[in-house]
Each structure stands twice: as structure tokens, then as C-alpha cells.
Design goal:
heterodimer, A: 327 residues, alpha/beta, Rossmann fold, seven-stranded mixed sheet, two-stranded antiparallel sheet, 9 strands, 43% helix, 12% strand, B: 325 residues, five-stranded mixed sheet, 12 helices, 14 strands, 36% helix
Chain lengths: 327, 325
């Protein structure tokens, strides 16, 4: 597989990851200021996966993600203002404020959530792929989920259906080692996730999910294969969540030492040092990227702050389809 | 004369012929011909892509139906019985019913799910329950219950036209029911109740398999000069409350027949709505004729005793009208 490792492309990968990181850090801050409420699951540490996989996709390819999906949404090209406004529950949010942090949707951008039932999106991804195949469209559907989802029946049902019907789906398992606070070894008899997928006949790849270029390469290979008719594939990305499961997490289940060990392996730290060492970018240029992203996030926060909440009178909207002439 | 089963099969056949986006999937719908033989012959006519046998993965294939409907298809998903639909509750409740709302109106789920429901075939406690009221309590989905051959024939097309998920409940005791298939009326509306028999003295509200029992009771008491109005709900969500209220305001006496367990039944909801909106029109306490609070037993005599029968309905009608049997 030939990768276009141009300076421009590498810079873009780094910027995309920093965009997500900075967005998440500000969300955490806004959470403590009580601007954002409910559950808030941060993608900090896992940015390379969404950014890497998204490089392999076309606009018309559908993405399903989990409740830790801010990063996927941004990487799929959703407007940062709208994603931030969704965090605030504002009408200008990507789901008009109805979903919040866990339910970001953009139908036009083919981003179908934001699904907070572990494993629940896999069958739907199978269905979208089925429709694409029946309609002779050459799209690929990507479904992101955590390693916790492999214990769900829906994981097994979906992989079986996808292979049985030879559907164009890429299952991306973000294996961060913990289903909330339960380590994989406490929940799975077979901890090799790729092996489970292989047992259903899927082609699998396991990569370092902290290395964006490695994720990208594997995703491009997988998506190319799927478009050429390989049937479904599974990409397992080994990663680590550098923050708690959600903002409520006191992290009793892991030591600070363990977290610290992963900090240096983080996808952004890793890529920055590589780019600096290989003289693709210098400190000043990285600073400029970070400044530009700070401006973008600040603008998104301002947009969210200034946006309106939906009128209480509209409470029961969006339950069923509405006539087009409703305001 | 047409059977209920034939009417549904014809509805599927016409829908699939008219619209290339329509396909049907479920357990044993193809090579076996359908657990209740509804889809017999359709595999030969439409092929494996469009009459698709699924593994026993209710959650998986219902979720796949949701995904396919989002992506532009018009799937009909068949679940063998309502009891098995419990394995797909996550997809139905957490996805089909919520996606439009969670996405702020962006993502509709134009999915049709058909399933068999109800008791009467001695299939015991994991194949015989009437749980449609559970689904009828969920915002975001619509619920239809055809009681006649005519509705069995025409409701499906209305469900497929609907931009939201629609569940169609087919009572197992109706599949062999034979009736004259009426032509589709121009103003046909699947989502409204109908007056199956007009009357002035007592209102019986029912749906599904309850309809023929209610009509038989109405016939019996008419010999004694009592005029019973029978309302066939047809659509369990949204409930056609106006049709219920207007009948109740006319008769002042209500019997609700529903094969669900009494506690928390749709009959309970209807009873509450009548109490809220028509209390001053009532001449007698509302009577609910529902299933006894027991999992459906296997032996025929116990199964019969568990679910609403003509004599229970008759007793309730006599009670509200102050007539001694």
C-alpha cells in the first residue's frame, strides 16, 4: 500500500487529532463549569483511530459511532460549531440539542450517531450496508465500537449477518482495555478480538491504535478490499483512554502509574515527536496549528453560548415525521 | 372469500411488485414458507434477495431492517411471534423509536415489522402472549392490529408509506379466518378506529381477535333488544381517542376487550382516558375483559379460561347494562 506521506498530509493528520484533543479538553472544562451536563465521554487518547480511519472514507460512506463520538463526528467533517452547540443542548446543535454529547447526528454527512447502547449500532450498520449493496452503490459503512461490545450478542449477530450476506462493512473495534471499569480479562474468555471475528470468516487486522499512520494504512487497505468485494472486515485498534470513562469516573480500577505510562504513547505526543525528529515540522509551526485550533474551538464555544434553547412549547416535536410546513 | 393469511400474502406481493425498495426478511420466511405460511410461494416469485431467510438473530435482523430503512429501502421485517420480539426490544425501543428524536428530526426509520401475537393454539407460555400494549406505550412507533381480512390486505401498504416505524400485529387465530375482501375505499385510513357495528346501548371496544368475539356478543344480545356498538381500534398507537369518546358519550356504557394481561393493558389506558374525558357520560363502571394474570398455560381448558371468551364479554355487557343474564 502506497501512502502519500507528504508533509501536508502528515500535518493534516496531526491537526485533526489536535482539533479533537482541544475540543475534548475544552468540553471537560465546560463540564466543570456546568455548561455541559449529563454524561460526557471524552475521546482523549484515542484520536488516531477516528482520524486514521476517516482518511480511508469517501463522503458518501456511512459512519456509526458510540457515545464517545465527538472525535468521530469532527473527523467525519461535522461542523464544530454545531457539535459544540449540541453539547450545550442548543437548537443550533447538530441534533437540534435533543441528543447531547452521546447522540450527535448529521444525516447529510452520513454520520448516524452517537449510539449509547453498547453494540446497538452494529446491526444498523449491517442494514445500511445491505441497502447499499441492494441498490448497487459502492459505499462502505464503518461502525466504531469498543472492546466491551464484543460481549454483546449484537456483535456476534452482526458479524455473522455481515459475512453471511457478504456486506460492505468495516467493523472498527477501539480496544482501550476497559469496558467502563472492567478490564478485558475480567469479561472475556477469549481476549483476542480479531480471533472472534475470524471465526465468522471476516478478514481482520490488528494495529497500534496510537499510531495514526498505522491506523490509516490499515483502514485504507481494508476499505479498498471491501469496495473490491472482500465482504466485511474488522479492524482492531489497540488504544488507551487517557481520561476516565465519563466525567463521573473516579478510576479506582487502574493506577496512575498505568495512565502515566500511556501518556507518552499518546497518539499526538507520538506523532509530534516523530514529525519534529524527522524535520517535517518545527515547534513554531506546531504552535501555529495549536493557535489556529484554539481560535476555532473558541469560536465554537461562542457560537454555542450565543445560540438559543428550543422553546418548551416544542417539547413533543421530532417523535414522528412532521408536515414540511411546520415552523 | 379470502383468508386473512392470503390477504397478507397478497399485500406483500403487491407491495413488492409496486416498489423495488420493498423486501421482506425474517426467520423461515423463504424456504420454509413462513411459520404461519403467510409467505408461502413468495421466494419463488421474488428470489432470495427480496424474500430473505435470516438466522435466529432477532436483534441483528431487526437492527439491519432499521439500517436498511434509513439508507433508502422499505424493509418488511417478520418476527415469528411477539414473544421472540423481546430479543429485538433493544433495536425497536432504543433505535427505531428514538432515532428521529435523538437526531433532531433528521433520521426517520420507515420500517415495517410484522409479528404474530396471541393465544389459542396451545403453544404455552413462550408463544402465546399479547404484548402489543407494550409497544403501544412507546412514543416514536405506530402500532396496527388488523382484525379483518380487508385490513389484513390494505394496512401493509399504509404502513409502508409511513415515514416512521410501524409494527403490525397479526393474531394467530385470525390466519384462517375467511371473509369477503372488500374493495379498498378511497378514504381508507389504517390509523383510525372504525365502527364495526353501530349501536346505541353499550360500547364494546376491542381489536384483533377480540373483534369477532365482540360481534358475536352483539348479535346474541340484539335478540333481547340490546343495541351494542362495536369499535375496532385497528390502530393501537396513536390511539383514536376521539372515536372512543364519541361512542362512549352516546352509549354511556363501556366494555373493553383486550387479550393482554389485565394489569397495565391497553384496556387500562383506554379506561383511564374514558374516565378523564367522559366520566359524566358514564352510566356504569367501565369493564375490562382481559387475560388472567397467568402465563398462558398449555392445556386447552386452561388456555381457554385464561383469555377473554364470548361468555366473559357477555357477562360484562350484561353487567354494564344492568341486565341479568
Amino acid at each position: 500500500m502506497k501512502l502519500h506521506i507528504s508533509r501536508e498530509h502528515l500535518t493534516n493528520l496531526l491537526s485533526e487529532m489536535i482539533r479533537i484533543r482541544r475540543f475534548e479538553e475544552r468540553c471537560a472544562q465546560l463540564y466543570t463549569e456546568e455548561k455541559i451536563r449529563g454524561f460526557l465521554h471524552l475521546y482523549i487518547g484515542e484520536e488516531a483511530i477516528a482520524v486514521g480511519v476517516m482518511q480511508a472514507l469517501e463522503k458518501e460512506d456511512t459512519v456509526f459511532a458510540t457515545y464517545r463520538e465527538h472525535g468521530h463526528a469532527l473527523a467525519k467533517g461535522l461542523d464544530m460549531n454545531e457539535v459544540m452547540a449540541e453539547m450545550y443542548g442548543k437548537l443550533s446543535g447538530s441534533s437540534k440539542g435533543r441528543g447531547g454529547s452521546m447522540h450527535i447526528f448529521d444525516y447529510e454527512k452520513k454520520f448516524y450517531g452517537g449510539n449509547a447502547i453498547v453494540g446497538g449500532a452494529l446491526p444498523m450498520a449491517v442494514g445500511v450496508a445491505m441497502a447499499d449493496k441492494l441498490m448497487n452503490r459502492s459505499h462502505v459503512t464503518v461502525c466504531f465500537f469498543g472492546e466491551g461490545a464484543v460481549a454483546e450478542g449484537e456483535f456476534h449477530e452482526s458479524l455473522n449477518l455481515a459475512k453471511l450476506w457478504d456486506l460492505p462493512v468495516l467493523f472498527v473495534c477501539e480496544n482501550n482495555g476497559y469496558a467502563m471499569g472492567t478490564a478485558l480479562k475480567y469479561s472475556e474468555s477469549q481476549q483476542n478480538i480479531a480471533a472472534k471475528a475470524e471465526s465468522y470468516g471476516l478478514i481482520t487486522r490488528s494495529v497500534d491504535g496510537m499510531n495514526v499512520v498505522e491506523v490509516e494504512t490499515a483502514a485504507i487497505d481494508a476499505v479498498k478490499g471491501i469496495r473490491n468485494g472482500s465482504g466485511p472486515q474488522l479492524l482492531e485498534c489497540h488504544t488507551y483512554r487517557l481520561r476516565g470513562h465519563s466525567m463521573f469516573d473516579t478510576q479506582q480500577y487502574r493506577s496512575q502509574d498505568e495512565v502515566n505510562q500511556w501518556l507518552d504513547k499518546g497518539p499526538i505526543a507520538q506523532m509530534k515527536s516523530w514529525l519534529l525528529a524527522n524535520v517535517y515540522l518545527n515547534e513554531t509551526e506546531i504552535q501555529q496549528i495549536e493557535d489556529r485550533i484554539d481560535d476555532e474551538v473558541n469560536a465554537a464555544i461562542e457560537f454555542a453560548e450565543k445560540s438559543d434553547f428550543e422553546l418548551v412549547e416544542h417539547l413533543t416535536r421530532h417523535v414522528y415525521a412532521e408536515p414540511l410546513n411546520m415552523d | 372469500m379470502t383468508t386473512y393469511r392470503e390477504a397478507i400474502r397478497e399485500a406483500i406481493r403487491v407491495a413488492m411488485t409496486d416498489d423495488a425498495r420493498v423486501f421482506l426478511m425474517g426467520e423461515d420466511v423463504g424456504h420454509y414458507g413462513g411459520c404461519y405460511a403467510v409467505t408461502k410461494g413468495l421466494l419463488d416469485e421474488f428470489g432470495e434477495q427480496r424474500i430473505r431467510d435470516t438466522p435466529l438473530s432477532e436483534s441483528g435482523f431487526v437492527g439491519a431492517g432499521i439500517g436498511a430503512s434509513i439508507a433508502g429501502m422499505r424493509p418488511i421485517v417478520e418476527i415469528m411471534t411477539v414473544n421472540f420480539s423481546m430479543l429485538a426490544l433493544d433495536q425497536i425501543v432504543n433505535n427505531a423509536a428514538t432515532l428521529r428524536h435523538m437526531s433532531g428530526g433528521q433520521i426517520g426509520v420507515p420500517l415495517v415489522i410484522r409479528m404474530a401475537t396471541g393465544a389459542g393454539k396451545q403453544l404455552a407460555a413462550q408463544h402465546s402472549h399479547s404484548l402489543e400494549n407494550w409497544y403501544a406505550s412507546i412514543p416514536g412507533i405506530k402500532v396496527l392490529a388488523p382484525a379483518t381480512v380487508t385490513d389484513a390486505r390494505y394496512m401493509l401498504a399504509e404502513a409502508l408509506k409511513d415515514p416512521d416505524p410501524v409494527i403490525i400485529f397479526e393474531h394467530v387465530m385470525l390466519y384462517n379466518q375467511e371473509q369477503e375482501l372488500e374493495p379498498r375505499q378511497d378514504d381508507y385510513n389504517a390509523f383510525k378506529a372504525s365502527v364495526a357495528r353501530p349501536g346505541t346501548d353499550v360500547t364494546i371496544i376491542t381489536y384483533g381477535a377480540g373483534l369477532s368475539k365482540a360481534l358475536q356478543v352483539a348479535d346474541q344480545v340484539s335478540d333481547k333488544g340490546m343495541s351494542v356498538e362495536v369499535i375496532d381500534l385497528r390502530c393501537l398507537r396513536p390511539l383514536d381517542s376521539e372515536a372512543i369518546f364519541s361512542s362512549v358519550k352516546k352509549t354511556g356504557k363501556v366494555v373493553i376487550v383486550d387479550e393482554a394481561w389485565l394489569t397495565g393493558s391497553l384496556a387500562s389506558e383506554i379506561s383511564a382516558q374514558i374516565s378523564e374525558h367522559c366520566l359524566w357520560s358514564l352510566d356504569a363502571p367501565i369493564q375490562r375483559v382481559c387475560t388472567q394474570e397467568v402465563p398462558i398455560p398449555y392445556p386447552a381448558h386452561l388456555e381457554k379460561a385464561a383469555i377473554p371468551q364470548i361468555e366473559n364479554i357477555l357477562q360484562a355487557v350484561n353487567f354494564v347494562s344492568g341486565t341479568s343474564p
